[in-house]
Amino acid sequence: MASLDMRQQVSSARALESVWQSYDQFCSPQFQQYAASIVARNEEMFAGFRDVVRSQLDSVLQSWTKDLLPNLISPELLDSLARWAEQVEEEWPANWEDGEAFWSGASALMGASGVPVVWLPRLSIVEELIEAGDVEAVLLARRDEILEDCVEAVAVVSGTPVAVLVPKVAKAVAAARDGHWEPVQSYCGSILTAILQVHMRFRRFPEMQAEFDRDPDDQPYRLARLYLLGVCVNQALANCDVMDPVQPSDFNRHSAAHTVDEVQFQPANALVGLMLISSLVRELHQLQSNGVWNELRFGMPELAGV
Fold first, then answer.
1. Can you spell out the DSSP letters for 236-252?
2. Which of 271, 277, 274 is nearest to 136 (CA)?
3. Can you give the three-state secondary structure of 41-64, one letter per residue?
4. Count of CB atoms within 10 A of residue 157's CB?
5. CA-CA distance, 188 to 206, in Å (whole number)?
6. 10 or 42: which carries more pLDDT confidence?
7. d(Cα 27, Cα 175) in Å, to the nearest integer?
8. Cα–Cα nearest to 115, from 231, 282, 255
9. What is the pLDDT of residues 110-147, one digit of tens each?
10. pLDDT at 11 over 90
């Protein structure tokens, strides 16, 4: 029995050695080069085949769209779809790129910094902000262009209830251009309060914060922009103790309203406040002018009549 056990151990040792040798061969540079050459040959072999299949599929889809689709879908529905596509195009902010990467980057920026990038600033600044390690530095370096973009964003706002705030935004921008950053920041806080409580009819900030805690990705397309801005609004309304000697360093409506803290009152924060109120005025105008506003209640009565 002992002899049998010894043979089994020797056999097992040899088998294990064989396994390791095979593994070493598999991992060797020579084997890897051989495998790569096989893959390359297959790529060359099937490349033409893939092109033929793709061409055939394109032909079938074009024929289906041209000949079959009109017979399956009524002209009225096709017209409705065309109008919907045009509306989507019109409502897509000019400072946004299409694609998941940009959407994710913009969402992450707003969530991390509270800096709104809906309707403004221009695309080149948005891209710079997304990639920036120092968001504040970008804001300050591009401040003149950002102020221009605030004016441009609200220039189209007219004929809707929120249009009464356009002159207020213009005054804030003019003061910023003259370098009066502290008054600008305080004024932006007051305009933000008017937007939320007068125009959106949120009686209490906790109700509004609970509403905007919802994930923008879970909202209908036409409300996604508003809920993205809601992420920034909630950060601007973050609770803080005004008696605390250490005040928030990001734009905070409560701190700006009840303190004159030098950490809170900064040109970059005034810019963020201006960007936020400008974006909200433009967004509410869009919702009021396209009929979506009448469908919104946020749990508050008479919102559509504001």
1. HT----TTSSS--SS--
2. 271
3. HHHHHHHHHHHHHHHHHHHHHHHH
4. 22
5. 20
6. 42
7. 68
8. 231
9. 999 999 999 999 999 999 999 998 999 999 999 999 99
10. no
In angstroms, the CA 115 to CA 232 distance is 6
Distances (CA, A) of 270 to 27, 39, 104, 157, 172: 59, 58, 26, 22, 10
Neighbours of 234 (CB within 10 A): 18
Pair of tokens at residue 257? 């309203």
Global pTM reads: 0.72
Cα R_g (the chain), whole angstroms: 30
What does the block give as tokens for 110? 């707003």
% the chain with pLDDT above 70: 67
Contact present, 99 and 126 (Cβ < 8 Å): no
Residue 160 Ramachandran class (φ > 0 left, ψ -120 to 50 alpha, else beta): beta
> What residue type is assigned to position 103 of the chain?
W
231, 111 contact by CB (below 8 A): yes
Mean of the per-residue pLDDT values of the chain: 80
**CB-CB contact of 80 with 275 (8 Å):** no
- What's the pLDDT tens digit per position in 176-197? 999 999 999 999 999 999 999 9
DSSP state of 159: S
How is residue 46 written in tokens? 């099937």
Structure tokens at 111: 């969530």
* Amino acid, res. 268: A
